[in-house]
Structures are given as C-alpha cells and as structure tokens.
Amino acid sequence: MASGPREKFDNPTIEWIDSRLPIFTMLNKEYGVFPTPKNFNYFWNFGAIAMFMLITMIVSGIILAMSYTAHVDYAFDSVERIMRDVNSGWLIRYIHMNGASFFFIAVFIHMFRSLYYGSYKQPREILWILGVVIFLLMMATAFMGYVLPWGQMSYWGATVITNLFSAIPFVGESIVTLLWGGFSVDNPTLNRFFALHYLMPFLICAVVFLHVWALHVTGSNNPAGIEPKTKKDTLPFHPYYTMKDTFGLLVFITIYAFFVFYAPDYLGHPDNYIPADPLVTPAHIVPEWYFLPFYAMLRAITFDIGIPFTDITIISAKLGGVITMFGSIALLFVLPWLDTHPIRSARYRPLFKTFLLIFVVNFVFLGYVGSQGADAMVGPIPLSLLGLLATGYYYGFFLAILPWLSKFEKGRDLPPSIHESVLD
Amino acid sequence: MATKTKTPKSNGKKGETRRDFLQLTAGAFGAVGAASVAWPLINSLNPAKDTLALATTEVDLSPLLVGQSITVMWRGKPVFIRRRSEKEIEEARDVDVAALSDKQTDEDRVQKPEWLVLVGICTHLGCVPTGQKSTEPRGEYGGWFCPCHGSHYDTSGRIRKGPAPKNLAVPDYVFTSDTAIKIG
To answer: Shortest Cα distance from A147 to chain B (angstroms)?
Structure first.
C-alpha cells in the first residue's frame, strides 16, 4: 500500500515501526491528510456509522456466542438465560438485536445518499457494486441471525426463506434438502446457520476493506457531484471529517441507545418469544422490518405466467415471486449502466430528483404492503394489487425511467467548482 | 519460457504446442481433483444417515369421528389426516378437473374416500396451513388456508387459489388394518 519515499516521524518508536511496516504513513495518507471534498453534508456520515455498527455487531455477537447453544432443544432457553441470568446479558443481546436494525438504517440511508448524489456513476461503479455485495451479505447474515433464538418467527422465517430455493426448476427440492440437512428446518439447519452467521461478518469486513480501498482510489463523491479540481475544493480528512463523523455518530448512537434501553422489542416481533413449533405456523408471519419491501415484491406475483390461451405455464407464481424479489437486488448491480446521465447529483437533475423521491415513497409503501396480511384490503381494492403496482414502479424506475432520463433530461448548469458551489 | 522460434510443434498443426497440451491436461486434472475434494464437503451438508433412518409413523385412526382431523409428525413434518364427511367428498369430486391449476382427481389422491392423508405443508413456501380444527379458517373451498401468503386448498387438499403451485402432497402410506395406517 504505502510504499516508496516516506517522511520520517519524530517519535523514535513510531519511526522504528514505520520504517519496517509503514502503517503510520498509510494511516496518515488515507485518514489524516486524505483530501476530501469540503462540501459534505450529514449524508456522508453514514459510511462511518455503518462501519461502527459492523464493529458493534461483531463485538456483541462474539460475546453472545459464548453463552449461546446452537441446538433445537437448548437454543431458545439459552437465549432466555442470556436475558435473565448472564451478567448484563440482556444489554448485550438488546445491543445486538437492535444493532441489526440500526445497521440496516445506516446502510439504507448510505444507499439513498449514493442514489441521490449519483455516487455509483463513473468512475465509482466498482465501489458501488462492492457496496451491493456488502448489502447482500448483510441480508444473509441478518436472516441467519434471526433464526438462532429458535422462536416461532425464527423457525417459520427460516422455513419460508429456504423454501424460496425450491422454486428453482428441476434441482430446487434437492437444494432445499441440502440447505436443511434434513426434510424440514431442524437441528442440522440451526447448527449450520450458527456457523455461517459467525463467519459472514468477517466476509463483510473483507468486502468493506475492498469497498474502502476502492473509495480511496476514486475519492469521495460530494453533494455537487463534480470532481474536486484544486486544493480549494478539499479539506484534509482529519480533523474536519473525523470530527463531523464523530458528531453524526454520537447523534446516531443516542437514538440507537434510546431503542436499546426504552423500546428494545419495538422493532422485533412478539411471536419470536414463543418457542419454535413445527406444527403451528403463526397466523401472520412477517420478516424483520428491513426485509419488508423485498417480501412485498415476493408476494406481489400471485399469478402464473404462461403462453396465452394454453395451459402451459412457463413461470409459476412461486418462481415469479422469487425472481422478482432477487431481481430487485440484481438491478442494483447494473444500476451504473441503467443511469448513464452525465450529471451525478440530483441537485442539478430536477426530473431525476422527482422520480427518485417517488421511488423512496414507493419503497416505503412496499414495506407497508409487506407488513400486512396476504389478504388485506384497502377499501374494495386488495392490497396485493397495490403491491403489484408498487413493484411495477420499482422495476420501472430502474428499467424505463432511468434509461429514459439518461437520454432526455437536460438538467441544470453545473457549478464550475466545488468551491464556487459552496459560495452560492 | 521457450523462445518463439524454438517452441516445438506437435503434429505440425498450427498454433497447437506441446505446452498447450500440457496446460490443458494439467488444468483438467486440477479441476477434476478440486471437484472430487469439493463434493464430500458439499455432500456433508445433505441429510446424515441418522436423519435418513427416521422411522415410519403408524397412526391409529379409530378415535376419529366423521369431520374430525388429526395432525401427526412424520420426518419432522406435520401430516394431516381428515376423516371427510359425505359432503366434503362430494365437493371434492364435483370439481371440473380441467380447470384446476394442478390437475388431479380426488380419486387419485385417496385410497379410501373417507380418509384424506396429506403432508401439511403449503407447497408455496412451507408454512402449515390452518383448517385442521373446525374453528380455524379453512379458506374459500372448505379445506385448508395458508395464512402466510393466502393459498386456498379444497377438501381434497388441491390448490384452488393463491400463490402455491401444487396440491398438498400425498405421502406414501398403507392401511395396515381398517382403522390404522403406516406413513412412509
């Protein structure tokens, strides 16, 4: 990383280490003097906040693992023991449980920031793609973690999600048996989910490392969406952004702590305090809130897609739902090639801004649809139909609106430099 | 690396060298070797022998009255057994099979019309449908209703409405006497 000529440090110990492994030179280059656009707003805090949450989850998770037993007969009770008997166990578990939610809050805001300011555009495509990989790994990790307490929602969530793979033609059933290690979600499934739940955060760390590496090659985007040109456009990362990040982080932690101490179960589901029962499905299964929009897209497809006027089904409703759900994330991978408009920031693209804000409202609405029962109605209209329309907008935004805007949106004049955009 | 001019050609064919052959065979052997090591690792995740050895389940049907249902466990899954009433059998047989999404006659799904035996797992995403108790929702066709994603099953356990692609599965079973079955 940091190689070639290097400046000497005054402190002899640091100098001794740095002349052998230039880690202090590297830290200073990447986090000390690193030139950073000077016009960041608070949306730029959420990368650091997400990093903080990742570390929080790993630390609290390792401690929890020391008191947890991954066996169907003991898992639920071992979690209750953590809550009641282990010293501060309740605190550590609530930190971990709510930490998952707040990690997702940070990442959703971080992703919205990238969308709004066009941070995925050339030359930051790989940076964005690595971010989507992290998001996928997080979803897998969160899902497996939710299974571990072995409550009713754990069990049935695991059943529903693993069954998604049975929709794959021909090999689906075999894949599901392979995932389960049996004929239903059972002890082998719990065991392997625990092993993977422990592993995946470290994979996330590895991808985060690549993500940050890529960031430090291209440099950060900024609210104006134009590249820094002169020294006037940037500030050294320390102390300016170390301070701004710390302030934002403290505000974030305050809200997080409020939930941990005063509403620890608000974001969860009470059914998960009922031990898993393979014979009774809860009347209303819902995933954790951060999966709800994707869950709504899974359920939006309630019809088979076949050749018209024949009985031949090409894509069953089940496979259609699964494709729609996974496709919604696959679209994120190709986003840099769907939105090819030369202007990055929504500040200078009024049409893009409007459609993007509708997209956000639509995404929240999908979350609402996902939280309701399968046969819910809004007046005379079945909610699932509205869910289908909202799914249509989600796809339409990426596949039709963005390419169309890329061609036809004129956009406003860009400021000549970051420095001058701040002076406006 | 051999210099360009000295590279030996095999069989005089253009562009194919001994080195290409060696690289291809080495690559192929490496791939086969890697796959043969990977397979036991992947296969270890498949059901273990003790899981596969799970015994069959025997059920005494004699306590069931007409219209009653029981749920038994078989291979970790719920199995629904319903003693159907005349009306339920009639409803199941009065259906235009061609209009079903998973076409099966009721006769194909039962050994004795009175006894309906089903794996109680929704074919959509694996929830347990409600309807075993008469107080639970049974859906629009009087059979079972899956609360997870709204699949309706009829009194033969066939999918009639909702996202599930298939009828509730019928497990292998035999009548060991008039009022007892062995599942599996």
So the answer is: 16
pLDDT of residue A94: 97
Q: How far is A330 from chain B (nearest CA, A)?
A: 22
pLDDT in tens, B100-126: 888 888 888 999 888 999 999 998 888
Give the domain-ending residue among B10, B27, B47. Answer: B47
- How many residues does the structure list for chain A? 424
Domain match, B22 and B94 both: no
Claim to verify: residue B100 and residue B178 sit in the same structural domain: yes
Lowest mean pLDDT among A119-128, A170-179, B11-20, B129-138: B11-20
Question: Which residue segment(s) compose the domain that B31 sits in?
Answer: 18-47
Chain B: which residues have CB within 8 Å of chain A?
A: 42, 45-48, 51, 54, 71, 73, 75-78, 101, 123-130, 146-150, 162-165
Residue B5 lies in a domain: no
Q: Is-catalytic flag, B149?
A: yes
The pLDDT of residue B2 is: 47
Query: What is the number of domains present in chain B?
Result: 2
Q: What is the pLDDT of residues A251-271, one digit of tens each?
A: 999 999 999 999 999 999 999
Query: Contact, B80 vs B110, CB < 8 A?
Result: no
Q: Are A215 and A34 in contact (CB under 8 A)?
A: no
pLDDT reported for residue B35: 94
Residues of A in contact with B46 (CB under 8 A): 177-178, 181
Prediction pTM value: 0.88
Task: Read off the pLDDT band of A2 (50, 70, 90).
Answer: very low
Q: Is residue B129 part of a domain?
A: yes
CA distances for A11 relative to A5, A14, A19, A24, A197, angstroms: 18, 5, 12, 11, 42
| CA–CA separation, A266 and A287 (whole Å) | 14
Give the C-alpha separation, A93 to A148, whole Å.
Answer: 12
Average pLDDT (A258-287) is: 92
Name the active-site residue from B112, B149, B166, B182.
B149
Nearest to B127 among A159, A316, A373 (CB): A159
Judge contact between B137 and B147, C-beta under 8 A.
Answer: yes
User: B138 with B151, same domain?
Assistant: yes
Could you give the residue numbers annotated as active site of A? 216, 220, 244-245, 288
Task: Please check whether residues B108 and B146 belong to one and the same domain.
Answer: yes
Q: How far A182 CA lies from chain B's nearest CA (Å)?
A: 5
Residues in chain B: 184
Q: Are A403 and A338 in contact (CB under 8 A)?
A: yes
Whether ipTM > 0.85 holds is: no
Does residue B80 belong to any structural domain of this protein?
Answer: yes
Chain A residues whose beta carbon lies within 8 Å of the beta carbon of residue B148: 156, 160, 281, 285, 374
For A55-68, write each residue's pLDDT tens digit: 999 999 999 999 99
Does B93 lie in the same domain as B39? no
Task: Enumerate the residues of chain A whose CB falls inside 8 A of the CB of residue B78.
Answer: 278-279
